[in-house]
Write a structure and sequence with these properties.
The protein is α+β, with helices and mostly antiparallel strands and 97 residues long. It has two helices and six strands, in the order αββββββα.
């Protein structure tokens, strides 16, 4: 991940953790509404050189496939598109407990 992209992700509200893997990176977010996100890049992500980011919605720390945002992961995103998805997740109504 490029330093400028990393900085944008780290500055986004809800940033919790950054993990490095042999074949990629993961940035984890948690929001006050009970939802969060896992942002992947590298060979572990659905992406390519120009659109390297994948975002998955999480709920209470687990992958969530039943939100209005998506019923799967969203791959092949630019940094700005990934940040927009994070904003959308943060704006969801409170997650069921």
């Amino acid at each position: 991940m490029k330093a400028i992209e990393q900085k944008k992700l780290y500055k986004h509200k809800g940033f919790v953790q950054h993990k490095l893997f042999d074949n990629g990176e993961q940035v984890i977010f948690e929001f006050e509404n009970g939802y969060g996100a896992s942002v992947l890049t590298g060979r572990i992500a659905y992406g390519n050189i120009n659109r390297p980011f994948e975002v998955a919605v999480t709920r209470n720390g687990y992958l969530c496939y039943d939100t209005p945002i998506t019923n799967d992961v969203i791959g092949y995103l630019t940094i700005d598109e990934a940040l927009k998805v994070l904003d959308d997740i943060e704006q969801l109504p409170d997650a069921p407990k």
